[in-house]
């Protein structure tokens, strides 16, 4: 991330907006329950908002940048059901099928190997678990801003994201444009295992 983005992400203005407006909009009426992983949690602004709104969810926040991890740990110290770790989303240090939900807010476009990130997200979700979030779309403005600030990025087009979610084994996929096409909200669900025998060729012949 660029110095500008890092400063914005850590500002009290962003914390305020994250809690009042961005989290409810990003979740789009979904509730956070059970074990929830937030990838690329930055300063912890969205996790703090989530911890306020969903007091029963056990939230794990990861970020690859130690400065952001330290900032998030401070911001989230008052929430015993939240923990923050330094980790790369493309190589998550969690067991397969550990989380009920994974959230991602404005971070995927920072991950050059975002398809690997989606594969990891899918791996750590329990069958039936939900992946919810939002990101920038591939607009001229987004490309221009990131070229100016010099941060590594690979902005994803909505169709590419939908294909990537399917390739990662997710189902019930939705990718919807918002704010005149500058942002996209997305959702996917890890496939549940088929009941034994239900889809077997032998069962189909019976
Ligand atoms: C624009 S910030 C968004 C922060 C936060 N989600 C929010 O909405 O306030 C993107 C974050 O993704 C993190 N990030 C980038 N690449 C990552 C990776 N490979 N694994 C984990 N975190 C990553 C960055 O360090 C940064 O904190």
Describe what this molecule looks like in 3D.
This protein has 206 residues and is α/β, with parallel strands linked by helices. It has one domain: Vaccinia Virus protein VP39 (Rossmann fold, 3-Layer(aba) Sandwich). A seven-stranded mixed β-sheet has the order 3-2-1-4-5-7-6, with helices on both faces. The protein binds S-adenosylmethionine. S-adenosylmethionine binds next to helix 1, helix 3 and strand 2.
Strand content: 25-35%
Q: Stretches where pLDDT falls below 50 for ≥5 residues?
A: 200-206
Give the CATH topology: Rossmann fold
Alpha-beta classification: alpha/beta
Give keywords.
206 residues; alpha/beta; Rossmann fold; seven-stranded mixed beta sheet; 8 helices; 38% helix; disordered C terminus; binds S-adenosylmethionine
What's the short version?
With 206 residues, the protein is of the alpha/beta class. It has helices at 3-9, 12-27, 45-53, 66-75, 114-124, 140-149, 158-167, 201-205, and strands at residues 35-39, 58-63, 82-86, 99-105, 125-136, 170-178, 183-190.
């Amino acid at each position: 991330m660029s110095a500008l983005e890092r400063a914005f992400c850590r500002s009290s203005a962003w914390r305020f907006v994250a809690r009042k407006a961005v989290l409810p909009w990003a979740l789009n009426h979904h509730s956070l329950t059970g074990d929830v992983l937030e990838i690329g949690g930055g300063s912890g602004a969205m996790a703090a908002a989530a911890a306020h709104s969903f007091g029963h969810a056990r939230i794990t926040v990861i970020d690859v940048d130690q400065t952001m991890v330290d900032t998030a740990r401070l911001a989230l110290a008052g929430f015993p059901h939240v923990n923050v770790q330094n980790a790369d989303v493309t190589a998550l240090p969690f067991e397969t099928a550990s989380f009920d939900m994974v959230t991602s807010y404005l971070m995927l476009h920072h991950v050059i190997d975002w398809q690997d990130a989606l594969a990891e997200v899918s791996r750590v979700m329990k069958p039936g678990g939900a992946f919810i979030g939002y990101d920038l779309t591939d607009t001229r403005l987004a490309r221009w801003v990131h070229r100016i600030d010099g941060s590594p990025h690979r902005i994803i087009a909505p169709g590419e994201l939908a294909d990537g979610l399917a390739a990662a084994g997710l189902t019930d996929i939705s990718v919807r444009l918002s704010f005149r096409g500058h942002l996209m909200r997305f959702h996917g669900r890890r496939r549940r295992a088929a009941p034994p025998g239900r889809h077997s060729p032998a069962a189909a012949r019976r």
